[in-house]
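Deliverable D5.2: sample structural annotation.
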Amino acid sequence: MRRDLGRAWRFLILPTLGLAAVIAFVPGRTEPAIRVYALVLCGAGLVVLVAALRRSYAPSRPLRARAKRRGGGRRQVPGMLGRLEQETALGVAGSFDFHHRLRPRLRALASGLLAARRGASLDDEPERVRALVGEETWELVRADRPAPEDRLARGLAIKELRRVVESLERI
């Protein structure tokens, strides 16, 4: 803070000399000169405060380290992963998109995992599948789940989606 104040005082030397010159040589313009000088003082004070705030908080770091890219452009997401990200974002945002985009993807994942790991069919053995995936996941992947009444309602909560994915991973 003291270092910033020292810099601010050095910055204010020239405006102070200008104010003194206006007062000494142009006495009729004293009031506008004082107003301009007050603006310069406020600006210097803001710069000092912002610098102090920047030092008081830890510097932010990105969540993911930036990989050095050859092309220098945007990150390249595989097509399937990009579609899955988009379907997930839409399914969390709205109930209609969840029911018609993300839910079929979850059903396909559940069906494949159940067939490969447990030898169970999602549609043919509902009671066994319900016991394997849990009640919450079963309510989302069952074949007879009705479409949402309010198409504009909020979709699946992220915490709920995380629990569903974890239950599918446990199959």
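Annotation notes: The chain has seven helices and no strands. The chain has a mean pLDDT of 86.
The annotation will be released with the project's public dataset once the embargo ends.
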